[in-house]
Amino acid sequence: MSGRRHIGAAERRARLAAGQLLAPGARASSAEEVAGSLVALHGTDPSTVYLAVGARLTDPAKTVADVERALYTDRSLVRMHGMRHTVFVFPAGLTAVVHASTGLEVAARERASLVKQLEAGSEHDAAWLAEVEAGTLAALAARGEATAAQLSEDEPRLRTQLLYAPGKTYEAWQAVSTRVLRVLGMEGRVVRGRPRGSWTSSQFRWALAPAHAELSVAEAKSELLRHWLGSCGPATEADLKWWTGWKVTDVRRALAAIGAVEVGLDEGTGFVLPDDVEPVAGGGEPWAALLPALDPSAMGWQQRDWYLAPELRAPLFDRAGNIGPTVWWDGRIAGGWAQGKDGEVRWRLLADVGREAAAAVEERAAALQGWLGAARVTPRFRTPLEKELAAG
Prior knowledge:
The protein is α+β, with helices and mostly antiparallel strands. 43% of the residues lie in helices and 16% in strands. It has 15 helices and 13 strands. The chain has helices at residues 9-19, 31-38, 46-54, 63-73, 95-121, 126-143, 148-154, 177-186, 217-232, 237-244, 248-257, 296-299, 313-316, 355-372, 384-391; strands at 41-42, 77-81, 87-91, 161-164, 172-175, 190-195, 204-208, 261-265, 268-272, 288-291, 326-329, 332-339, 345-349. Keywords: DNA-binding.
């Protein structure tokens, strides 16, 4: 496209600082504001949600109370499956959009997989599964909120054992309850409630999902992409296909539907919303941040060279492509951090960014350690540098 504007790496980093609420003047006052700006907070590791919010609040000391209020009292944030078969925390107003744009297709695959396993590994079938689901939902309605173990007391068929990954080195017998609740969650019929333990726990109670509007798939895809580009644009087709988990044809239809504008990027063609073409000035106050494993800013794009030097990937990622805790300086990932068993937040810069950066990182590390208090955080997906720092 002739005459299109080029957005270089420096401007992209300035956009990231503002859109991802990482610059000092851009930070938020509530968990809802953070989630709304980022669209989705990675929820596979429960602690990521809290650490991602805390890194962006003007008063990080209130992080735990504010996130718990939003998730479990006001229900203004909802933890549910979304893009790429992954658990996220979304603003409640986006649940219908996520459900129709990504959840339905993922849920259909998950249900088919479970039925196939049931038929191959037991005498049960889809009709049996439907009966178990009905019993589970009735038990949940009576209890209000319950763990899988509690639901299994009311619906004993949830204890049925299935062999997972037969023939693999990691094959194991497991109760079908986990898979049943997973399918019900993907289909938007149940949601995760309070954890059994602290905010770092991954053992959740379950509750019936609140009703939400039913949207057309095309409408929902367009709306999700509009929200994401508003926060994270510009992005390439490859970025968008990776982030959503959609086919490239679905990405292109949604881009056309929202009138996305082509811009030039160092990686090739990118896209922004029609009202987001004008230059964004950089050169503001430099900023430091300690972001958690799987943070939305670190995992938001497939092509990351504009904020992550290729030579830093090996120590910061695990073999499956999950990024660990990162240290940022002025729009770039500059190192990593970890919390030791004694609670100390330890960090290391992997790039020469100067004394000012080191002092700013030290200040952010002290603030993080202060609000963590007695809590101990170990990422679910361990990376080389995180493991080294945690053990040091």
